Amino acid sequence: MTKLFERTTINGMVMDNRSVRSATWEGMCDKDGRPTEKLASCYRDLARGKAGLIITGYAFVRPDGRQMPGTLGIHRNDFASDMRSLTLAVHDEGGRICMQLVHAGGQTVARMAGRRPLAPSAVNVEQFSEEPEAMTQKDIDEIVAAFGDGARRAREYGFDAVQLHAAHGYLINQFLSPLTNRRTDAYGGSVENRCRFLLEVYRRVRLEAGPDFPVLVKLNGSDNVEGGLDMSDAVFVARALDDEKIDAIEVSGGTPVSGEKGPVRRNIDKPEREAYNLEFAAGIKKAVGCPVMSVGGFRSLEVINKALEEYGMDYISMSRPFIREPLLISRWQGGGTSAATCISCNGCFRPGLREGGIYCVVDKKKKGA
Ligand SMILES: Cc1cc2nc3c(=O)[nH]c(=O)nc-3n(C[C@H](O)[C@H](O)[C@H](O)COP(=O)(O)O)c2cc1C
Ligand code: SF4
Fold it and tell me: Which numbered atom of ligand 2 lies nearest the CA of 343?
């Protein structure tokens, strides 16, 4: 039995193995962010396939934090029964489900956000397609509160954990990055100040969700962008969260403007190309006491086992492999040893935008559907 299949606990949440379905926008919700039966069925399949923890696609905490169509929203009380259908579907299969909470900040457009996008600073950088509006203290306080409300709802609806999306160039990452945070108040400048917004969000989420509820974060080890968050900043942020008892840190890297070093890299066709954020995760692992998850390009058992055993990773997260093979972990648990069949072409985004939900287009073509 390899380390991958060990049973573990994160702040009371028992997970059957060390695999995580990393947050993956599914594009399966209605225009308001209400989840559908199709989304519940997607999570049921992942739980059947023995993914140790399923992290939902990013759920916006306020409508002005929405980026993509079909995204989950955790901003309203009247989605309660549909939300419970998601958690029930997973729990019926013995799985665990964590809701990822996001505000897209400046990384959206007015058409999706319903207003001029908000960001730490009104800077026109490549990352923002429209010049965002700099947030006031009132905006900051209200968004911090919205994250807390989202976490409280998630717990009420039966989610086993929440994860703060602090990576990939969204609002929290924008505060962390000197490139997008040009503020001269207590939220900008030094890394202590750039980290303040994240810590305020975390503390409010912790307050609303309670000390006995797992609160995770997805953090970039580096933005892989000139002038953005770097590894030394990321270590500082990880330590600050660890000191405040974050339950686990999932380490990613890159933003949509990182070019070939973005979060969702293509052509992971040999072991050397796999695990492209592992060095960042290993650096953060050395600095903190909480469990660390590594995400980005894991495809083969060989590389997964190495990350767990030689790099000391606590969990391995994957996104695209589970789109093609929701039953991937049970296949490996059953003795299959071949790598995930996903060819990392990123074709799965398109049906999310145009056909009411992501799926593996390569697989569909192969089956002749
Ligand atoms: C269709 C799609 C949607 C994604 N949506 C999210 C998301 O909502 N939140 C997030 O943190 N990352 C998201 N990601 C990034 C993945 O979680 C992951 O970090 C990245 O794909 C690298 O992992 P992989 O090589 O296992 O796919 C998404 C990726 C894909 C392909
Ligand atoms: S379309 Fe299929 S093969 Fe291509 S990245 Fe998505 S899941 Fe992988």
Answer: 3
